[in-house]
Design brief:
Blueprint lengths: L2 H13 L9 H26 L14 H8 L8 E3 L5 H6 L4 H8 L33 H17 L10 E6 L6 H12 L4 E7 L2 E2 L2 E2 H4 L15 E6 L3 H16 L5 E6 L17 H8 L3 H11 L5 H24 L17
Parallel strand pairs: 1-2, 2-3, 3-7, 6-7
Antiparallel strand pairs: 4-5
Helix pairs in contact: 2-3, 2-11, 2-12, 3-9, 5-12, 6-7
């Protein structure tokens, strides 16, 4: 077993079973449906890409679903705010953006959530409080910080007691060596902003192993440099992520400031669909495949008598049907009009 894998196995082992959210039937089925939607949607994207129906850079989220579902599922949709990365499809779905609008955007159609102007890496939805996907690492963190500042400003300056929205900023381990990360952590803690910094540590920044890229591999500990609360989470366990998110949300809404969550996870596909994924060892891939977050939750639901296997299969069938219809509708949708090329760039009356 390689030294990098050994390190991650030890970290994951120390976290298992710690401070998980309570599981009940309704919560479990909602979590299962959301994670399954994310997985099946990404699988369909891969199919469309390899069939030559989808173009450009496409970065999939397979394996990391427990983080999107665990965090966003614990938040208030259309109230709280979300800021993503270039790996943004599943965040958008968890935030409530309809699968048809996301798929349409990937095909560059006018019916897309960004009106066909954004594509895979630039999903945006004002209605669903999705502040965007960003092609360059670290870009979204200052935007998320601004949203969190806005929530606090409305509450304290304009005395708007309904302004208790929390912002979740998602980003990867590679971002944590960039200046925006440290600058925004400092400002967030200084002003006690209602924000959760969610590090999706999937061990690889494109082809660079996390352990080779940073002088301190435990990202959550970097919060202490700013007097911020940091927490390490099993990112392959949706209940563990949900529990950590609930604690961070309670703290943020009480005016006690931000939290840095490091979610230990793994992507089951290459960096992008154009990546042959030849740098990662097969032994490493096999280890993480056995920790599939969807299979883990489905076992808990069945073994705990919260749901039957047939119920879960029916959810999968419903989602497959929805995604198939989303593809059909997206392919039939209109392209943006050439004469409206500059629309949505400047503010309009």
């Amino acid at each position: 077993m390689g030294i990098f894998l050994e390190t991650h196995v030890e970290r994951i082992s120390n976290l298992q079973g710690s401070d998980r959210a309570i599981l009940d039937r309704e919560t479990g089925l909602n979590l299962f449906e959301d994670m399954t939607l994310g997985r099946r949607f990404e699988d369909k994207c891969a199919e469309m890409y390899y069939r030559g129906k989808m173009f450009g850079f496409v970065h999939l989220y397979n394996g990391q679903e427990a983080i999107s579902t665990g965090v966003i599922g614990a938040m208030k949709k259309k109230h709280d705010w979300f800021c993503s990365t270039y790996r943004d499809h599943v965040h958008a779905l968890s935030a409530g953006v309809p699968s048809f609008e996301v798929m349409s955007e990937l095909f560059g159609k006018e019916t897309g959530c960004s009106k066909g102007r954004g594509g895979s890496m630039h999903l945006f939805s004002k209605e669903h409080h999705l502040l965007g996907g960003y092609a360059f690492i670290g870009e979204g963190i200052p935007v998320a910080l601004g949203a969190a500042f806005s929530s606090k400003y409305k509450r304290e300056v304009f005395a708007d007691n309904t302004s208790d929205a929390v912002t979740a900023a998602f980003f990867g381990d590679g971002t944590c060596n960039n200046g925006q990360f440290f600058e925004c952590l400092n400002m967030a803690q200084l002003w006690k902003l209602p924000i959760i910094f969610v590090v999706e540590n999937n061990k690889w920044a494109i082809g660079m192993a996390h352990d080779r890229a940073t002088s301190h591999t435990e990202i959550w500990r970097k919060a202490s440099a700013f007097g911020m609360h940091g927490e390490e989470v099993d990112g392959m366990d949706v209940l563990a992520v949900r529990g950590a998110a609930q604690r961070a949300l309670k703290k943020a809404r009480a005016g006690e400031g931000p939290t840095l969550l490091e979610c230990l996870t793994y992507r089951f596909r290459g960096h992008s669909l154009a990546d042959p994924d030849e740098l990662r060892a097969q032994q490493e891939k096999d280890f993480w495949a056995k920790r599939d977050p969807i299979k883990k939750l489905s076992r808990e639901l069945v073994e705990g008598n919260f749901a039957s296997k047939d119920e879960l299969k029916n959810i999968e069938k419903k989602i497959d049907s929805e995604i198939t219809q989303s593809v059909t509708n997206a392919l039939e949708a209109h392209d943006p009009k050439p004469e409206e090329l500059t629309k949505y760039i400047w503010a309009e009356d």
